[in-house]
Amino acid sequence: MNGHRLLLAGALTLCAIAPAHGAPDVVRGEQVYARCLACHALAFDRVGPHHCGLFGRVAGSVPNFSYSPAMKDSHIVWNDKTLDRFLSSPLKTVPGTSMTYDGVSDTKDRGDLIAYLRHANDTPECAKPRPAPANRR
Ligand code: HEC
Q1: What class, spelled out in words, does domain 29-129 have in CATH?
Q2: Which region, left, alpha or beta, applies to residue 63 given φ > 0 means left and ψ of -120 to 50 means alpha?
Q3: Pocket of ligand 1 (CB under 6 A)
Q4: Of 72, 109, 123, which is closest to residue 94 (Cα–Cα)?
Q5: Cα–ligand 1 centroid distance for 1 (angstroms)
Q6: pLDDT digits (tens, 9 = 90+) for 41-90
């Protein structure tokens, strides 16, 4: 019986957190991502590496992309927290990185941007680069 109560309390807490007001705004995040498009694309490498599959990826690990030694040696695993730190000040977080960009100084902008990057991974654009074996015949 006590277990029930605990479960219920847990569920209520979750409900209270999920739709919180300052929740990240993916649409705004896409607008912030425009700043990155000078060098990046979601699905393919440009001056910077592609961003599909970024979450959970080890920094500097896209095959055939020519990273700086600093990025390769950083041993960062990309997630909300590490992205927030890196994007606030790339050159301070990974000294020697070839991403010569000042970063996104506004905390809310960064949160929206990171939410967009996470969301983008589930869009068709990020499903594209995997060659479909069905095309064989
Ligand atoms: C001036 C070009 C440029 C801009 C603008 C830029 N980047 Fe980069 N980015 C790079 C380069 C080059 C690298 C590879 C860095 C290295 O090897 O040290 C990189 C690396 C990264 C990485 C590490 C990826 C990996 O595979 O480890 C992330 C994450 C990233 N950029 C996110 C962003 C985001 C988000 C923005 C926009 C706010 C942005 N970048 C803007 C050039 C840029």
Answers
A1: mainly alpha
A2: beta
A3: 35-36, 38-40, 47-49, 54, 59-60, 62, 67-68, 70-71, 78, 87, 97-101, 104, 113
A4: 72
A5: 52
A6: 999 999 999 999 999 999 999 999 999 999 999 999 999 999 999 999 99
